[in-house]
């Protein structure tokens, strides 16, 4: 018969098994998570007989750990509320079940249940949205670093969410490993011919000699012969200028590029000369959006809308002849009031109208630098948490990791490419590869 003492002893044993037994750590021994005793671990491994049994157990533990971490992240996202806790009137967001997700990793395929919230605002860190591959801790650290988190921020995040203690020195060594990847990326050989290359720059605050200065980081985004986007490289300088762009283009040429059919650029003075020096046959398409913005500098704000509407009739005209007619009409209407606008378009006319040789869908790809400006916005979002970077190398690492993550979301090729490639083959017959 069970006595009061027997029940008390059983309860004490159960309580002991529910917590980690704290003993002096032996060499090579690790601390077990709270709630998992060495006795329980031994019981789990007692029936293991083959390597397959070990692999299955590790896969199950991996699944349990990932799901537990995701639940902890969701709890933090909901303001610390766990299952069953009542929300305050201000806390409108709630849990909304889970969704299945299959991951590939060192232990094979693992299916986990990812928690959801009603507002759809939950952005997990340990397993990001659209992520299918999971790797070691180094991969997670690089993912956090690519979001412009400092080593200290990463250390605090891992400790707060998962109870994992990682030194800032280890985090720094992991991120430093990216430098070699960046070097290979910057020096890799390129294709001989690129139909379209976009050139632009963005400015990043970097500490130098005790001061924070804005440094220009130059980007070259290409569309290759298969219609896929490809970042050719990233370069840095204190200011954006045609002279430095010439150095960039010369480096691209030294890495194997023999010809660029069309270069899409903004209105930087001297840019066409720099391109002509490196690639004399390249046609230059000036960004229409930049030209419109420059035009508005000479227009009273009250007339911005009608002026933009009339300029749209110029660059969206179905033919080059109609575009010239519409420009004449624009000057007849606005020339006496805003003569500089017509002069701007006349001076840039040969570079603005290169795109008229292509069908309208492809023209939209060519007459703006939206493709590279969209890429710049991705980089700015990745760096917005940093007031400044300690060095150019630190900024370059974050930009490279952000580009690597973003490039995985790119479509295989632009939808209009099959039709556009035929036009390239006719217009640049002798320069297009067979």
Outline the fold blueprint.
Elements: H1 4-17, H2 38-45, H3 51-77, E1 95-105, E2 108-117, H4 137-146, H5 151-162, H6 168-176, H7 178-187, E3 193-208, E4 211-223, E5 229-237, H8 242-254, E6 259-265, H9 271-278, E7 283-286, H10 288-296, H11 304-315, H12 320-334, H13 339-347, H14 349-352, H15 360-366, H16 370-383, H17 392-407, H18 417-427
Parallel strand pairs: 3-6, 6-7
Antiparallel strand pairs: 1-2, 3-4, 4-5
Helix pairs in contact: 4-17, 5-6, 8-9, 10-13, 11-12, 12-13, 16-17
Short summary:
The protein has 434 residues and is of the alpha/beta class.
Describe it for me?
The protein has 434 residues and is of the alpha/beta class. Strand 1 and strand 2 form a beta hairpin. Helix 8 packs parallel to helix 9. The N and C termini lie far apart (92 Å). The N terminus is likely disordered.
Shape: elongated
Mean pLDDT: 78
What proportion strand? Answer: 15-25%
Radius of gyration over C-alpha positions, nearest whole angstrom: 30 Å
Q: Give the topology string: H per helix, E per strand.
A: HHHEEHHHHEEEHEHEHHHHHHHHH
Give me the count of strands. 7
Question: Helicity level, as a percent range?
Answer: 40-55%
């Amino acid at each position: 018969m069970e006595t009061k003492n027997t029940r008390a002893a059983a309860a004490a044993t159960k309580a002991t098994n529910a917590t980690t037994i704290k003993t002096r750590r032996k060499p090579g021994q690790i601390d077990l998570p709270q709630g998992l005793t060495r006795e329980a671990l031994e019981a789990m491994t007692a029936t293991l007989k083959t390597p397959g049994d070990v692999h299955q157990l590790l896969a199950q533990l991996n699944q349990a750990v990932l799901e537990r971490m995701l639940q902890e992240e969701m709890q933090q996202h909901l303001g610390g509320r766990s299952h069953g806790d009542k929300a305050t009137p201000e806390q409108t967001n709630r849990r909304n079940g889970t969704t299945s997700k299959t991951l590939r990793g060192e232990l094979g395929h693992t299916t986990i249940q990812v928690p959801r919230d009603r507002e759809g605002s939950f952005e997990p860190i340990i397993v990001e949205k659209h992520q299918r591959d999971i790797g070691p801790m180094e991969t997670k650290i690089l993912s956090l670093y690519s979001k412009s988190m400092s080593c200290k921020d990463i250390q605090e995040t891992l400790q707060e969410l998962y109870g994992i203690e990682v030194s800032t020195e280890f985090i720094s060594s992991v991120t430093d490993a990216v430098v070699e990847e960046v070097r290979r990326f910057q020096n890799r050989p390129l294709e001989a011919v690129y139909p379209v290359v976009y050139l632009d720059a963005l400015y990043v605050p970097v500490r130098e000699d005790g001061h924070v200065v804005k440094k220009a980081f130059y980007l070259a985004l290409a569309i290759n012969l298969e219609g896929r986007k490809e970042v050719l490289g990233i370069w840095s300088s204190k200011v954006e200028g045609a002279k430095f762009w010439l150095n960039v283009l010369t480096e691209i040429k030294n890495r194997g590029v023999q010809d660029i059919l069309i270069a899409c650029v903004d209105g930087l003075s001297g840019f066409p000369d720099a391109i002509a020096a490196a690639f004399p046959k390249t046609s230059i398409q000036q960004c229409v959006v930049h030209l419109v913005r420059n035009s508005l500098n000479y227009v009273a704000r009250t007339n911005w809308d009608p002026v933009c509407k009339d300029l749209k009739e110029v660059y969206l005209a179905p033919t080059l002849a109609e575009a010239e007619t519409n420009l004449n009409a624009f000057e007849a209407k606005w020339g006496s009031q805003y003569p500089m606008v017509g002069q701007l378009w006349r001076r840039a006319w040969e570079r603005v109208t290169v795109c008229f040789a292509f069908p309208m869908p492809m023209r939209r790809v060519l007459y703006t630098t939206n493709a590279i400006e969209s890429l710049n916005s991705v980089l700015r979002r990745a760096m917005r948490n940093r007031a400044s970077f300690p060095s150019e190398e630190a900024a370059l690492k974050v930009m490279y990791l952000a580009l690597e993550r973003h490039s995985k979301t790119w479509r295989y090729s632009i939808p209009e490419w099959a039709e556009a490639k035929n036009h390239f083959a006719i217009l640049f017959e002798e320069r297009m590869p067979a």
